[in-house]
């Protein structure tokens, strides 16, 4: 059922060239890396591992691999005139054995110069880089810091309204959205955390994004709430005797791009069953002609699962449409109960190196 909309939109885009102006663009990342040293998690039988991409379980080990971060994507858009358009995005990932899937499939209709409504499958706009998470060329790192970009659900199917206004010298943009996601099997929960098929349901999703931009300053605020159901091995999970739990997400990012200095920050909180899960990241970069060295720190803390990553890297824009990157990541996994059967460690400590090329076309 969840693929029918994507199939219908894909058929529409590819079968009506006489009725629409069709544009095709693409992006790719070819990245390799390995763990230089790491502890793993002995009680889970996990070898030294760097979990670089939580949602897709893109994990590096001590054997050099291109699979965790390598991907290829195509975006097809059709202008159907009179304000109506259709968009589909297909992505093939090394973390999914390079199987191709629809990440986006939606219709858009421009109501006026300020408002656009959309319906279909889209990326859940939780974080600053959510909408272009797969487009490595759009940011300095090899991938957005995993401690911050951790969630098991990253798409939703529903409706949204996008808006944009000019307020003096400021640009105001954002969106309001509603929908749900039913993911079975959920890759992160099934393959990494629970070890058996897990169905993750987020329903009654509702959120708002407000973004303000003034020349070198970009401020983004976001709020979302949802209701969660989960089934592990076909059995419904209960939390304190309840089969559902409500979550509320709050996020703030403040980014500065002033002369050659780049400062990227995000801070987020998820309130779930009267407990808080906090994440944040800070990145400092400095452009030197076509090069940008950077340092970054990210942190995840829910009181039990606690980990942080310190990263040092370099981006080299050697081509107008391509960038070479190299990055060193040092992960500290301080989950409580470490060394016991109730350990909340995710993948243990690790030191890793990765390098590759991001491009757009």
Automatic annotation (TrEMBL):
All copies of the Porin domain together span 14-348
GO cellular component terms attached to this protein's record: membrane
Q: Name one GO molecular function term.
A: porin activity
Q: Which UniProt keywords apply?
A: Signal
Q: Which domain of life is it from?
A: Bacteria
The protein's matches in SUPFAM superfamilies, at most eight in alphabetical order, are given as: Porins (SSF56935)
Q: State whether keyword Metal-binding applies.
A: no
Record keyword Ligase present: no
Signal sequence annotation: 1-20
The name this protein goes by in its record? Porin domain-containing protein
């Amino acid at each position: 059922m969840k693929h029918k909309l994507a199939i219908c939109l894909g058929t529409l885009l590819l079968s009506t060239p006489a009725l629409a102006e069709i544009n095709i663009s693409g992006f790719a990342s070819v990245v390799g890396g390995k763990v230089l040293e790491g502890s793993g998690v002995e009680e889970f039988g996990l070898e030294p591992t760097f979990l670089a991409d939580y949602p897709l379980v893109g994990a590096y080990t001590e054997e050099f691999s291109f699979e965790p971060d390598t991907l290829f994507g195509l975006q097809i858009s059709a202008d159907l005139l009179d304000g109506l358009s259709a968009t589909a995005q297909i992505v093939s990932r090394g973390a999914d054995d390079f199987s191709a899937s629809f990440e986006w499939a939606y219709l858009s209709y421009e109501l006026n110069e300020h408002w656009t409504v959309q319906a279909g499958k889209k990326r859940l706009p939780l974080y600053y880089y959510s909408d272009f998470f797969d487009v490595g060329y759009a940011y300095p790192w090899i991938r957005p810091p995993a401690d911050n970009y951790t969630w098991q659900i990253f798409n939703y199917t529903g409706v949204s309204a996008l808006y944009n206004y000019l307020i003096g010298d400021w640009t105001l943009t954002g969106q309001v959205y509603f929908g749900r996601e039913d993911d079975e099997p959920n890759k992160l929960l099934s393959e990494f955390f629970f070890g058996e098929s897990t169905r993750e349901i987020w329903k009654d999703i509702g959120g708002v994004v407000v973004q303000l931009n003034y020349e070198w300053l970009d401020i983004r605020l976001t709020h979302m709430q949802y209701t969660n159901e989960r089934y592990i091995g076909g059995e419904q999970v209960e939390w304190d005797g309840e089969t559902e739990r409500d979550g509320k997400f709050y996020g703030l990012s403040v980014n500065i791009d002033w002369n050659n200095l780049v400062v990227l920050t995000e801070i987020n909180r998820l309130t779930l069953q009267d407990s808080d899960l906090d994440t944040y990241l800070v990145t400092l970069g400095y452009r030197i002609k076509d090069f940008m060295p950077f340092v970054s720190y990210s942190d995840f803390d829910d009181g039990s699962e606690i980990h942080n990553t310190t990263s040092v890297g370099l981006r080299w824009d050697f081509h107008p449409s391509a960038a070479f990157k190299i990055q060193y990541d040092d992960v500290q996994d301080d989950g409580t109960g470490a060394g016991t059967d109730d350990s909340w460690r995710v993948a243990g400590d690790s030191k890793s190196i990765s390098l590759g090329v991001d491009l757009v076309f």
